[in-house]
Fold this protein.
Amino acid sequence: MVILAVESSCDETSVALVEDGKKILSHIILSQMDIHAIYGGVVPEIASRNHVVHMTRVFEQALKQANIDIKDIDLVAVTQGPGLIGSLLVGINAATAFAFAHQKPIIGVNHLIGHIYAASIEHEMKFPALALLVSGGHTELLYIKDHMDIKLLGTTLDDAVGEAYDKVARVLGLPYPGGPALDKLAALGSDTYHLPRPFLDKREHNFSFSGLKSAVINLIHNAEQRKEEIRVNDMCASFQASVLDVLIEKTKHAAETYDVKQIILAGGVAANKGLRNRIFKEISNYDIIIPSMEYCTDNAAMIGVAAYYQYQKFGASKDYLLSGYSTMSFETLEKK
């Protein structure tokens, strides 16, 4: 089964062709990172306009790279949410137009479920599994009983972990995107500032990073008032140590509580080297799978993989009237 997948939930324009939920026939990603860097973050209107400009070209490149005839495509899949509504609608309209023009069935995919299934591109999923989904907009612990049978255990009550990384990095004067820059400097410093570990109670599966972010900002502000120098590497190391302590401990406890066979680390923050190193070191008695770097950030390949399993369970949409959603639950639209 060949699936053409489209992803445009934020600022990456991506189209991929995936065979049988495993083989990536083509994978094109056009990033807008350089455009948004001057603003220190993604500007929704600029992101959606750039999707409009480049979507057709990305479609053409993906089809050319896959080297298959359009008649050999069995299904079209597109991210329906969550994400920036303007960006989502560009991808949905493009995918719907392609599907309608070529009389292909179409399916809407939850972007976050796509991140989970990114790990299955290069690994085999074992059930029941626990997923730690960490990104710029999301921080969730999820219990996965079987394909497309996902239960939300806990989420962030305020800032997502990736958002906290970017905001702390900005205060420290680091370049955008701040997460990778902070991760790199953290490896050069030490946990000398001893920041709080928010919501560290392992029995509580929810997360909270707003207080930690505020603690860093206040510490830096007070130091500036006293004309004291902030040791940037140590601050990065201290912030990352606090975040990772919380993520690791909560993941470990949830895995034990639900007696899972596997832990999946997914989302953009799954590319964080500090997190990767610690989760293998400190939860070594579990099978842990993580997507390779190219599949951690937003991409259409993961949407194509998730769509394969979603289609097997629920089929495709009965019409071409897909909507976009800025927020979505982990239940598929078919379940609702």
